[in-house]
Design a protein that fits this description.
With 220 residues, the protein is an alpha/beta fold. The chain folds into two domains: 127 residues, Rossmann fold, CATH 3.40.50.2300; 78 residues, Response regulator (Rossmann fold, 3-Layer(aba) Sandwich), CATH 3.40.50. The protein is 52% helix and 13% strand. A six-stranded parallel β-sheet has the order 2-1-3-4-5-6, with helices on both faces. Strand 4, helix 4 and strand 5 form a beta-alpha-beta unit.
């Protein structure tokens, strides 16, 4: 196994899904499945033994569920990224996961490449959510005034502003590339420039910034 590989611990009570997800992730050379668990108790043992880079856990699984597992992981002072992977697109579940310390909230109907991309971005320190959950997270994170950030928005080029608007809609890089008829790599470069200029660390923060900017402009 290459040292560059991301080691993942999968936690899900459905054996078929666990195995299918493991095969999916390991098709990409960047990721290795270090272990698989069917419940929280087994996951905590494996977490201590395997020391993975990322934990991916289901939300609804007996006996306690993914949120309870997440809280137990954080109580053990493990600071690696924990991603929820679920069928639930409920805003309340998203809120509970983030408050418990999740670094990401993914949906089981996501495209495989988007799941892999989310895992890689989580390891880099980004908060990741399923594209369809972006605006729900924006609503949860909104609250502070953004008037002082409006001038920073002027640093962006017209293309970067265009891409930032797509980020608020929860579109993936590939979807943005298709919409603008540009390459996937070009979109990735623009996103990096946007984050750098705005002094942000994730696409979610950029989406929140864009929404707050619109609010501040309306209030001026």
């Amino acid at each position: 196994m290459s040292e560059a590989q991301i080691r993942v611990l999968l936690v899900d009570d459905h054996t078929l899904f666990r195995k299918g997800l493991a095969e999916l992730l390991e098709q990409r050379g960047e990721i290795s499945v270090a272990g698989m668990a069917a419940n929280g108790d087994a996951a905590l043992v494996m977490l201590d033994e395997l020391q993975p880079d990322v934990v991916i856990t289901d939300l609804n699984m007996p006996p306690q569920g993914g949120i309870a597992l997440l809280r137990r992981i954080r109580a053990q002072d493990w600071r690696g990224p924990v991603l929820i992977l679920t069928v639930s697109d409920a805003e309340e579940d998203l809120a509970n996961a983030m408050r418990a310390g999740a670094q990401g909230y993914l949906l089981k109907d996501m495209e495989p490449d988007d799941v892999v991309d989310a895992v890689q971005r989580a390891v880099r320190g980004e908060t990741v959510v399923a594209p369809t959950m972006t605006m729900k997270l924006v609503r949860l994170l909104q609250g502070g005034p953004a008037a002082e950030k409006v001038d920073v928005f002027k640093q962006l080029t017209a293309r970067e502003k265009e891409i930032l608007e797509f980020l608020t809609q929860g579109l993936s890089n590939k979807a943005i590339a298709r919409s603008l008829d540009i390459s996937h790599d070009t979109v990735k470069l623009h996103v990096r420039h946007i984050l750098s200029k705005l002094n942000l660390t994730s696409r979610v923060e950029a989406a929140v910034f864009a929404v707050e900017h619109k609010t501040a402009k309306r209030e001026q």
